[in-house]
Amino acid sequence: MPASHGNTTLATVGQIFVRLLEMHGLDASVLLRAQGIDPSVTSNPAMRVPTAQWEAVMSRAAALISDPAFGLRAARCWHPSNLGALGHAWLSAATLHAGLELLVRYWKIVGGRWVPKLVGTREDVSFVLNDPYQDDVVAAVATDITLAIVLDMCRLNFGAALRPLRVDLLRPKPSHAEEYPAFYGCAGRFATGRRALVLRRADAERPLPTSNRQLALVHDRVITEELARLDRSDVLARCKATLLEKLPSGELSEDTMAKQLHMSRRTLQRKLTEHDTTYQKLVDDTRHDLALRFMEDPRRSLVDITFELGFSQQSALTRAFRRWTGMSPSDWRQRHPS
Description:
single chain, globular
């Protein structure tokens, strides 16, 4: 497996490409082998494939398929397992906005060229893809595949009736352009200067019936640990993974964390500063997030939660919880029955 995640893609993502190619009557195994990809690797969630090889497959497919919008059909070819732990974590997101934030935060696990971001206004939330591709054809195909899958993920959680405000595309208007509004259920704008899926904020913030904070916590642990293993330079991920593991044993000091990460305390402080945070804020934010998830589980007592978050006394949990929410844990549970 190549060491640089930025130039590799999770191997199981390849199953989406295989289904898409076969849907259009192509022999996927022949196309994959022609680019040096063993088709069997797409079943191994522990493997990664150089992104350039998948791009070569997309380029060849675009030359063989007459429909320039064929990438939209990737929405019928994906499964949560293709995206690893990130795909399963998506299913338990509280809102589409929270789910999209999760995708942005942990996209490195999926890999590829994109570095997505969220841009919001009072009326909408945009999932935006940057422009890292040199080949316009590959960029257009990759855009259609990615945005189609992201929208289908949103519809899976929200419901099939979800209609974005619009989709913005860099590519010039192609033939078969009518396929875009037919798929998205909204206006498709071409040559706009960016690639983005735009949702109404009201839809993005609506609580989802599929939400499950306890499952979200489990998946968060898994993907944080996976990201920490994948990218040793990601100090935030490595710190959070260590906190999730060590908090129940007591407060993990900054010196101890630095030793865990095999660096000096000053180096740790400098690296966290580069991310506009401090170690204490990271600990506090992690506890805050865990506390809200634990509190939604009526089986967990306040004593249990105190222990899980690494507080020495329940009074310390109560003080911290008041600071986070403006109310005591007991009052919060009364107002937020499970």
